[in-house]
User: What shape does this take?
Amino acid sequence: MTAPVLEADGVGISFGGVRAVDNVSFRAYPGRVLSIIGPNGAGKTTLFNLVSGVYRSDSGRIRVNGVDATGARPARLAQLGLSRTFQNLQIFGRMTALENVMVGRHLRERHNVVLHLLGVAGGEHATREASEALLDRIGLLSHAHEEASSLSYGVLKRLEIARALATEPKVLLLDEPAAGCNAVETAEIDELLIALAKSGLAIVLVEHDMKLVMSLSDSVLVLDQGRSLVEGPPNDVARDPRVIAAYLGVAAEGDLAGGRMPGGTHAAT
Amino acid sequence: MSRLLSSRYAALMFVALVVIVPGLMLNSSFYLRVGALIFIFGFAALGLNLLMGYAGQVSLGHAGFIGIGAYATAVLPTHFGWNIFAAMAAGVAGAGLIAYIVGGPILRLKGHYLAVATLALGILISMVISNEVKYTGGPDGMAVPRLEVFGFRLRTAQHWYWISGGVLFLGIVAAQNLIESPTGRALRALHDSEVAAGTLGIDAARYKLIAFVVSAVYAAISGVCFALLNGHITPDSASFLRSVELVTMVVIGGMGSILGALVGAALLGLLEQLLAQFHEVETLILGLVMMAVMIFMRDGIVPTLQRLLFSRRAS
Amino acid sequence: MLLPRNLKALCRLWVADRFMAELLQFVISGLTVGAVYALVALGFTLIYNATDVVNFAQGEFVMIGGMVSAFAYAAGVPLMFAAMLAIIVAIIVGLILYRFGIEPARGASSVVLIIITIGASIAMRGLAALVFDKQFHKLPAFSGEAAIRVLDASIVPQALWVLGGALVIVAALWLFLTRTLFGKAVLATAANRMAAQLVGVNTSFVMSFSFAASAAIGAIAGVLVTPITFTSYDVGTALALKGFAAAVLGGMGNPLGAVAGGLIIGLLEALGAGYVSSSYKDAIAFMVLIGVLMLMPGGLFGKAHTERV
Assistant: This one.
């Protein structure tokens, strides 16, 4: 097997004494899809925030593309080839859909403020073309010139994927890409992810849609209460009694409380 | 409609008209001077708007950079025998350099902490200007050498009306270029979501610093023009109240709107002239107008009008 | 040979003595002016906690306190009643500011709210110039002008009034906030407005109260300090600046931090004026302020940011 693009080794973080993620390790390989699942509050999004540099891990190591990236800021991780989307949409609302994707080309552009003030910097055309091609690929070209804040949730979910792809990442973290999407949109995302993986991209996925997870994943990592419970091929994981117990336990509790467990998903915002 | 209004050529045409038409019609040097002042402070507000409206950072000390530009233009030729053009360039470069050096640590602060730090910076600059009496003449101010171009002395209000109008126009073109460039996109992205911008490789600290330096350079250029127009400068040009005035221009006109900065400058400039006639109630009315505009048009004049126009067309 | 050595020692003693007396003098005047900054900063904090508004008109309450009491006293009203009148006027102005300036702009961005309060401050200054005049005014010192000598430093009795007054206000506010139900409602609103609303706190009333209380605190400071510093229609801006700086230095939103910040800035000013240069006394205070913020971005007593460093 080829070398992993992303290695997380024993990462963790605490919030006010609560160990939100504790000693979790995983590897993402080119051309493969790794899904991270677990009950609400298991720490999936927090794990994403750790790996993408939004939070700083207080233990363990992170390597991207073989380079040590422990404690690196998001911008540095992006340079190393890591990109991500957000569960709670982080779209640039006052920019058009096209401009959102163009921002993703940031690392591929030359940056000289004086030239920008004089309006003579080249490369704008290349940025625009690459961004339009990406919009076309995810089927949003018709929305290119609409302000992002006026677009629907499902559209924005896909726009974030396009924006993340614009950085030409080696590894892509997707936080619930299909949440809030209808069946047709979910199928489209399914198709897109398969194509991306085929092209050699490493994909790490957090998703609640189990059908999507089972059909897409090469490997599944189950988190429970901030710890890694099981990792393995999707079918093995689905039959694992510990996994079933973890889900059932929380489902029952969730019904009683009528809501989510505290921690994980909310800590992400 | 809103797109058309905010599209760059429409805005440029509008500004060109606003500069040229009154310039041809006005004969009184008093009104030409008022016009030139509006252009000059509009220029500084334009720069501050890049910082506030696009980078999302506030500065309550930008008049300090106006002071640096203005006093470099006056002090360097008077006391050190510099060529005045070199002095002007040094003032602008000096302001940019100071902004670059101070900006690094200051811009790590957030919200009100940043506001206070910039406020302190502006006050420090204005204090140096008021206290170094030997060079600056202290609170009484000092004379500024007249600018000569090919033996032609630029000194009438009319000269400076056209010069500052031209400078403003170029300043708008440059600001528009910047906003549409990768740098501008990075700034706007940071303003909307710093987290997402970071994951796309944008270094927030670097871009905030860029906006800070660019806005300081704009302020310094405005200071240079102000000194040359006035022929005499006082520490007032760098005072806290001037800084507040700049912020008010930006916010009242509409943050993040280039036309907004100009409308804000024009409104405050004209209001001051208009109210000067009732100088008994001048400050009272100025304060009430500021409050009223902000209460009823919290997004600023230009964005509010754009929205009104847009929704009327739509319905 | 003996005499000169003795003389030298004597001289040294005298110098040391002079030094201590001078230092004490600077410290006392620094604390006095610092107490006024502390009260302004306390007003800032009270309003900021209840409403998230940075009220740049806070210095005008001090001006109102000074001007109204000075004019009332000059018109023959006894000092005590003149002071009370000034406080009542300031409270009314504070409530008007909240009702017609801040409440209609609820939810606007913080910079918009700052412009509104700056506008309010300009308007109040203009109104004061109209209603009163543009001259300096003073009040008689409450307990006479005769300086008290303490360890070779002379203290005007009014300075004790300022310091004591500030102490009483801080203590009263603290007791009120921690010991009364309404005070706890104010704290709850500061901590989480939505949650406070949900548990039945009348947050609108709490916000009005914060403006009224801040105005009263400012006016009291104005009455107390006018016998020392005089007052005029335009003293508010400088006070607002210093008060804001003090509140931020202490850590925005922390009342005790605000008081400490005010005292520190007052001390720095007095010591800077005494030992370095009186024309750069503000510069020293502001340089220290910038320095502190560089090292402690949340102020001296601010909560550490939970955000990524």
